[in-house]
Structures are given as structure tokens and as C-alpha cells.
Amino acid sequence: MLGRTDRRLRHLGLLAVFVCLALALSVRLAYWQVAQGDDLRQRATTQMSRPALEFVQRGDITDRRGTLLATTAYRDLLAAYPDLIAADQRSAVARRLATLLEFEPPQTAKLVETFEKGVPYTIVKRRLTAEQSQLVRDALAAGDVAALSLEPQPVRFYPTLGGAPRTTLASQLLGFVTEDGEGRYGIEQHNHALLAGLDGGTAALEGGPPAGGGTGQQLRLTIDASLQLRIEKELYAIWVANKAERVSAVVMDPRTGQILAWASVPGYDANSYAETARADPGRFVDPLASQIYEPGSVMKMVTAAAALEAGVVRPGSILEDERFLDFGDFKVRNADKRSMGELTFAEVLAYSRNVPTAKVAARLGRDTASASAVLYDMWRRLGLNRASGVEVSSESRGIAADPAIRRWAPVDLANRSFGQGVAVTPVQLAVAFSTMVNGGRHMPAHLVAPADPAAESRGTHVLDAEVSETLRELMVNNVASVSEVASKTLIDGYTVGGKSGTAQYWDSEKNRWAEDTYNYTFCGFVGDGIPDLVIVVTVNKPALTVQKRRLMVPKIESYEVFRRVAQTSISVLDLPPDSAPEPADELPGHTSPADSPVRSPDVSPSASPVPIGGR
Fold first, then answer.
1. Dihedral through CA 325, CA 330, CA 335, CA 341, nearest 10?
2. Which residues, 6+ apart, have CB-to-CB distance to 83 below 8 Å?
3. How far apart are alpha carbons 120 and 579 in whole angstroms?
4. Nearest-CA neighbor of 175 among 83, 77, 45, 286?
5. DSSP H or E run through 169
6. What is the pLDDT of residues 19-77, one digit of tens each?
7. b/e map 169-191, b = 16+ CB within 10 Å
8. What is the biggest distance separating any 2 CA atoms in the chain, rounded to whole angstroms?
9. What ranges in 438-489 are assigned the alpha helix state H?
10. CA distances (Å), origin 365, targets 266, 312, 376, 410, 423
11. Domain chopping of the chain, boundaries
12. E strand or H helix at 55, and its extent?
């Protein structure tokens, strides 16, 4: 009995020891988690995050000739080790650093607080300028500061100035790279994995760039930096003269789909993207691929393509122009709200008449449903309402109601035949017009040059070659047969063709089309036979300052913008003159420039108050 009692006491003693140990461990654990929690988390974060500061060297971006558009430069990161500084000196060192780096008072207060805590490691400032780095070195040498390190870090650098003040070249096309190494917008974001050298097997803390000092791949674009710069300068001058919200241009080789220039004003300085983010982040959005708009009468050429292919009209076919078409509650009118009487189809396009264009669209089928299907099919084949595939981030597909899903009313068919009730991007228009003039091949637009030129896509044949040839002739007639347009569009020695378009903005607050607020577009080409270039220019919301025949127009109109861009392209790319420029008087109904009336702007007022997407 006594033996058993002794064992029971020993067990109780051991249990008491274990309980005391557990209590001690709990107290110690609570001490580390609560009392020392902040400090431990700081140390852990420092240990995990510091290796991730060694960025992979991002691949360069060059133009078609090897000119650097984006590269890697090195700027110092200033780090500090406050726990190595005597406690009574930490505040003074922090304040000295703040003075050298010209910190604002809130930044200074935060830095002092961090130093006084005696943390083992903190980043004082990233991306020091060369001057700031030298000031820190001098202060270290003088003994004014201590326990610091200047750590060279790769940063994205855009070396070429743009054509407008305080911009870098092709800023909206290229995008930029953030401090943590992530590509944002444009080429940088779309091709981030390739440029950053990511292979899917390496990851850094919280998705940051991989450590280890690797190298990303170089990217060669199809654009020509010299042409890009010259066009940006032209667009900037036009933007200022027109007091426009935006002016843009894309230049494309219709034989290959290569984009030779991709410009928009205003742009921004990609080396100082943070300033743009604070002041006007909307400038990051690329208007050529990411912003959609109603293009207006340039879409009449797409309607012409469908009508010529269906055989319902020829260039010399006679059509009756009327003041309006009545659709019950809605009326479709011409821009000048007048009638020009009998016109050939060629003249309908040259004078940009809405009413006869709507009549031609109605002939595409036995009823509205079948005619709508034919027109929509042509849109799709020419690349509208789908992404072009250009290698930039956030490309829009546009907005166009599929009549197989959402039935078009007769007024919808009429409006869409001349470019209202449909939204596109300029690059989609460049692809569509390239297809219409290059013999009928849909060439995917691209900005990245293929490693093997022989691998260049041959495109897909989507339009009869004879239809393409007739469309080219009609576009030449558009610019040559109207004196006002001819005087500001034609270029001596070169075949030029195209189509202008003007569309109103929908004022959603007032539930009506805005007065005197328009988008102006010109889609055109340069070169005989299969053209050398297709050019699309847009002028968004310009001030209307010039009065012509009771109508207000911009100081510099879209077809004059086209000619300036075309002349610049001819000069920079050294395009030879045509051997024999196409005559402009071969189409039935041609009107000589001397006899032609002054054409009013081809504003396409929608008959329906319903904005994009149909009724």
C-alpha cells in the first residue's frame, strides 16, 4: 500500500512539473507573439523581401531598325540599417537623409519614426537620381550619416523623347514597368512574361519578379522610330491647332499587316509614369486599340463592299437621293438635310450621302433580316467586332449587335450602313481597309516583327479580287472628284484614295446627340495597284472654328491630317512615286474638280436616339 502511495505522489509531482513547463512556454510564446510580434514580423518581412529586390534584367524593346525604345538602366536604391546606429543618433541621421533627398514633412516624420524604432533594415528611397546618389556618398564620406547602402537596381528606361513636350516616344503603345517589375499597359503588359524572362518555374514573394539576375528576351517591333517621331510631331501640331481632345494615327502595310507607326497625342512620359497616374491616368489608355467610337461614314465603304459582292449595285448605278427616309418615329437624313437628286453610286460615296447608302443596304437581302445578315457578315470578314490580335494589352473587340442574336429594325440597318450604331477601334478600321484594297486578303495586324520574315502570315482570302479593285477605284474617286477634298488630300505623283467619316457623340445626360461635338476619321491608302500604305487618322472632339456653307468644321480636317501623315510616311520610308498614277475619271458619273459643288461635312446623324447596340 505504501509503495503504491509513493508512486502516486511521484506522478503528481511530474504532472506539476509539466504544467509549470507548459505555463512557462505559454508565457514565453505570448511574449514573442504579442510583445515582440511587430519586431519579428518586420525582421521576417525584411528577410523575405530583400532577395526579391534583385530584379531580372528586362529584355530591350527596339524598332524595326534596332533603335532602342525601352531598355534597362540602373539607379540606386538607398537602404538603411537603423539598428546599427547609436540610439541617440538615429533621429539626426534620418533628418539629414530627409534633407538630402528633399523629403516632404510627412515623409520626414515617417522616416524618423522608422529609424527611432531601430529596425534592422528599411528602404529609404528607390530610384535615386545620379545627383542624389552622389550626395549620399559625400555625406557618408563626411561622417554625416552611417549604416547605409546604395544598391544598384535595374529600372525600365525609355530613352527617346516623343514628338510632344514631356512625352517619350510611343508611350501609349509601349506602356511602362512599375517599381516591382510588372509591365503595365501596351507592349510591356501584353509581352510581360517574354520581356521579364519568366518561364513559369520561378516565382518571387507575392508574385514579384524572380530573383537571380536573369535576362528577359529582346522584342523587335515593326514600327519605324523615325516615322513614329515625325508623325507624333505632326499630330501634336494638329492637336494644338484644332484644340482637340485627341488626335491619333496608325500606319499599316496592307500587304503584310505590319504596323509601321502607332501614334496618339496627348501621350505621357513613361519614365515618370507615377506623375501621370496622379494627374491624368486616362492617358495610359491606348485610343488606337482600347477605346471604341462610332466611325461614321467610313463605314459606307464596308457597305459598298457587301453591295458590290452581292451584285446589287455597280459604280455607275443610278440612285435617287432624297431629303430623308421615313421610318415612322425616326427619319434618316443626309448631313445637309437636302437632296442632290439622281446620283451614281460612285457619287453617293464621294459626296457621302446617307439616304442612298441606306437604300443600297436594304437591297442586300429580300428583307431586313437577310440584308442585315449580309452586312454583318461583311463586317466580320473584314475584322470588325473582333480583336485584331495586335500585341498590346486590353484590346477592345468593339460593339456591333449580331442580327442573328438581336434583330435589327429597318432603321438600324439604315443607320449602320453609314457608321452609326456600331463602335470600332482605329486599328480595326486599318485592318478592314487593308483587306478592301490589298486584293481581298485579311492580314492580321501585328506590332512584333517575326523572327523569321518567311514566317509572315499570308492572310486569309475573304473578298473577291475584282471587288477589291473596284473598291480601290471608288476610293480614288472619293478624294479626286470633289474639289475641296482633292485640294487637301491628293499628293503629286502618288495614287491616293480613301473615305472620310464624321459622327456625333451621344449625350447620355440629355438623351440626345450632342451639338457641335464630333469624331472625325479618314481611312485612306497611298500607292497604285496594291497600295504601299493604309493610314487611319482620327480627330476627337475638336473645336469647330471654321464655317463653310453654314456648317462648322475643324481648322484642320481629317483628310488634311491624312495627307500630312501620308507625306511624312512617303518621305521617311522613301517610297518612290507611282509609275503611272491611276486616273480619277474612269468611274461613271465622275465630276471634275472644277465643276463639283463644295461637299458638306459627312456628318451621319442617327435617326434613332438609341446609342450603340441598336434598338
1. 10
2. 118, 119, 120
3. 75
4. 286
5. none
6. 566 666 665 655 555 555 555 555 554 444 444 444 568 999 999 999 999 999 889 99
7. bbbbbbbbbeeebebbbbbbbbb
8. 134
9. 465-480, 483-489
10. 44, 9, 12, 12, 23
11. 54-73+157-221, 82-146, 238-267+292-573
12. none
Helix H or strand E segment including 241: helix 225-242
CATH number, span 54-73+157-221: 3.90.1310.10
Tell me the whole-structure pTM to 2 decimals: 0.81
> What pLDDT does residue 516 have?
78
Per-residue pLDDT at 10 exceeds 80: no
Tell me the three cell numbers of residue 431.
485592318
Domain 238-267+292-573 sits in which CATH superfamily?
DD-peptidase/beta-lactamase superfamily (3.40.710.10)
What is the Rg, in whole angstroms, of the alpha carbon atoms belonging to the chain? 33
- Give the E-state strand segments of 508-600 in sequence order: 512-526, 533-540, 546-548, 551-553
The three three-digit cell numbers of residue 552, written as one number: 462648322
Identity of residue 42: Q
Contact predicate 251/266, CB 8 Å: no
Hey, what's the cell of 11? 506522478
Give bridge partners of residue 12 from the DSSP assignment.
none
What is the C-alpha to C-alpha distance for residues 524 and 251, in angstroms, rounded to an integer? 10
Q: Which of 21, 85, 76, 26 is nearest to 53 (CA)?
A: 76
